[in-house]
Amino acid sequence: MMLKFDIDGFIDTECDRCGNTLTLKLWDEFHLIVKMVDDPEVLNETEEDPDIYYISKHESHLKLADWIYDFINLSIPVQKTCGEDKKGGSLCNQEVLEKLKQMEVDSKKEENPVWKGLEQFKNLE
């Protein structure tokens, strides 16, 4: 059997950069080949192709919930950002971005007393 999964829908998540709420459109397509054999456990352990799965010749049902869950998770982008406007400017929350820049500058200025004694170990080889 060759199974085809079309993942299509929307997910509500947060921007990785500024924390704004985002609604992302998901769309992806996955294929899975299911083969009926006498000894599926052994073949599933040795199969290197993740798109091939073996079941017993005597099976009458196939549980797809775990695959669908995995396919949905694989459809979600690794980096989720607000994107850009028509002029190429960021749609992220500008107040948050400014605060992040300020925090980065402040962290470079201040020395953390927790690390003060460890400076002596920086250039050991």
How would you describe this protein?
The chain has 125 residues and is an alpha+beta fold. It has one domain. Helices cover 27% and strands 28% of the residues. It contains three helices and three strands, in the order ββαβαα. The protein has a three-stranded mixed beta sheet with strand order 1-2-3. β1 and β2 form a beta hairpin. The longest helix has 16 residues. The protein is flat and about 70 Å long. 0% of the residues are buried.
Extended strand count: 3
Helix-and-strand structural type: alpha+beta
Q: What does the average pLDDT come to?
A: 88
- One letter per element, helices H and strands E, the order comes to EEHEHH
Number of domains: 1
Strand content: 25-35%
Summarize the main sheet.
3 strands, mixed
* Number of helical segments with 4 or more residues: 3
Give the CA-based shape: flat
Helix content: 25-40%
Distance between the amino and carboxyl termini = 59 Å
Global Rg: 25 Å
What's the arrangement of strands in the largest beta sheet?
1-2-3
Q: Are there runs of 5+ residues with pLDDT below 50, and where? A: none
